[in-house]
Amino acid sequence: xxxxxxxxxxxxxxxxxxxxxxxxxxxxxxxxxxxxxxxxxxxxxxxxxxxxxxxxxxxxxxxxxxxxxxxxxxxxxxxxxxxxxxxxxxxxxxxxxxxxxxxxxxxxxxxxxxxxxxxxxxxxxxxxxxxxxxxxxxxxxxxxxxxxxxxxxxxxxxxxxxxxxxxxxxxxxxxxxxxxxxxxxxxxxxxxxxxxxxxxxxxxxxxxxxxxxxxxxxxxxxxxxxxxxxxxxxxxxxxxxxxxxxxxxxxxxxxxxxxxxxxxxxxxxxxxxxxxxxxxxxxxxxxxxxxxxxxxxxxxxxxxxxxxxxxxxxxxxxxxxxxxxxxxxxxxxxxxxxxxxxxxxxxxxxxxxxxxxxxxxxxxxxxxxxxxxxxxxxxxxxxxxxxxxxxxxxxxxxxxxxxxxxxxxxxxxxxxxxxxxxxxxxxxxxxxxxxxxxxxxxxxxxxxxxxxxxxxxxxxxxxxxxxxxxxxxxxxxxxxxxxxxxxxxxxxxxxxxxxxxxxxxxxxxxxxxx
Amino acid sequence: xxxxxxxxxxxxxxxxxxxxxxxxxxxxxxxxxxxxxxxxxxxxxxxxxxxxxxxxxxxxxxxxxxxxxxxxxxxxxxxxxxxxxxxxxxxxxxxxxxxxxxxxxxxxxxxxxxxxxxxxxxxxxxxxxxxxxxxxxxxxxxxxxxxxxxxxxxxxxxxxxxxxxxxxxxxxxxxxxxxxxxxxxxxxxxxxxxxxxxxxxxxxxxxxxxxxxxxxxxxxxxxxxxxxxxxxxxxxxxxxxxxxxxxxxxxxxxxxxxxxxxxxxxxxxxxxxxxxxxxxxxxxxxxxxxxxxxxxxxxxxxxxxxxxxxxxxxxx
Lengths: 514, 316
Prior knowledge:
The complex is a heterodimer. Chain A is of the alpha+beta class.
């Protein structure tokens, strides 16, 4: 098979040709450089050294997308585009991916970015001696080779047809490229003195208060960077975070459905703009199909049919949350004519439970948080109407993964996160024998479809596979989906040029103010 | 006096040991295992077992307590598993903010409470006195999270006089620092002044009935001189106690106020440690805060002795 190499020029032509419509639909704004932006985040950022923090949360990601570059980035249609990598190609079995790197890029400390530097990042995360939590997310990559200065080869354990769109496409704990010289020189202090190649350089960091980033004067793409300064502030209280936006101390703030009140007020405020990203994935739950009464497909179907997602959304998020009928969501390129969703029908649910003939009693894990408890109570009521008794078991957030891995549950909440490609999570969640195949369910047909979807290059064929997978899972009712993932930011109307919030990341590194 | 101080210092030892024991057991008895928290989505049974052994979590609890206490004695409070920061680093970064907040709040509360108490005591039973004692009772019942949000909406969103959230270190820009501190300190002061006012008022009323006050009146001293010079000092013993105990309440209030106003203080550090299950930071900070509280009350005890000589001679 011929390797599909894309040069940056080709990519640009593709961009212009393919997305001319999208571009012309955007009103023309004078993008004047200068000024600054203040971003209100939810959490304190613990740091940036993957060895120390393990995983970046959404607050850290906002900072890291300004400090660091990645090999690729996702454009508005979710396709990978060149950043530190100029072009890429793959082997016939999709297990080897070769990237040509951008020449002449330097880290903020002046040391050069090259294949060797990337490999050093990867090896450091992968090294078992470093016991990095981040290693989990690159488990699919066997190793990285640097045959020359500007060539990088990824050897994968399993085929991945859309590799440039995942992991390396956004500045998470694995995707962000750090300066090896800096982490070696700074040791323990590197965590809060990160050095990347990105459009912004760390200027100062007041613990628990603010991080100030300044424009990198030597950035390779500096013409597209407008603000002189970015200030990131953790504002943990949702109400005062919104008040800070209203009073003008913050230009843009992170928010979520739990704070539906502020979002709905901002929608009515002519001075504010609500940015919404309908991501892929969903808020989901898994049934343990090995334990009675959930080992019976009639019971599982009845429980799914008894869901009333509109009502749930109303009760939990003032109606903001969007109901989900499959694991992909509106943000995914997987669109199904028929995803096999079971009807929301209490009468049918009642009939199925009656048909089952025995009392349906089981426990569900919920997180011991106000949101978790509320969700549990709503489900309890919905299922009661169908004649099933669910008992809520409140546990600590951190207890859910181990309980799920050890299959010590009957129903457990879970999440399918926003991702450019469904393969990684679908394969982990549904392939027989995978540690995250929580339903304890095994079906050769499902395995075959998952295997086929991950080794097929043709997108149309993959969509068909994934829709067949959705139909099968919905029919067997081994997992159910409640809401799609929606990510929110609220800004003053002056803030322009915010890209899609993939994975919920507010990336202001190429935004500007009117 | 030296003997008095030495004896009081000796009392501190069992108190501090009790504080450390309580802190450690609370952190250890919380539901959820530290190993699970650290491993997150990779908490397979093998990984958990390996990490528990690595961190000494498989040891009996008394052994873990003793080794933690041993490290603490040598000044090693441990490190955050999330940031790699030591407890002492984290606390020293955050402490100035909280101390400034508490001092300003305490000053604010005294500035409101003391004059009102004196006026009310002087006009005991007047409509003004009854109105003020009534409103003090009302203010006492307003929780800080509510007054904080109300103050933000009034002064930051509507009037735009003061910033809603944020912080600038005092050394960097004193004026900006105070602007950021006004609302949080006021929030705490609003919750504290009623207690101060009510206690001082009733003590003052009692003092004003003493014979020597009648003597002062008979001598023809001005009412202001009687109130401020002769009556205030002997009436302020309970006030000092209240101020000492208030430090504890202020630490509690600071957790909420620092979160609402996004101040990078000890309260935020604690909340962050609780939310992320950073137990090492949590138990270290609680121990330090507890020790600080005990020391503050020790200082209050000493202040008693200064205010009332009978106490240092052991007659009271």
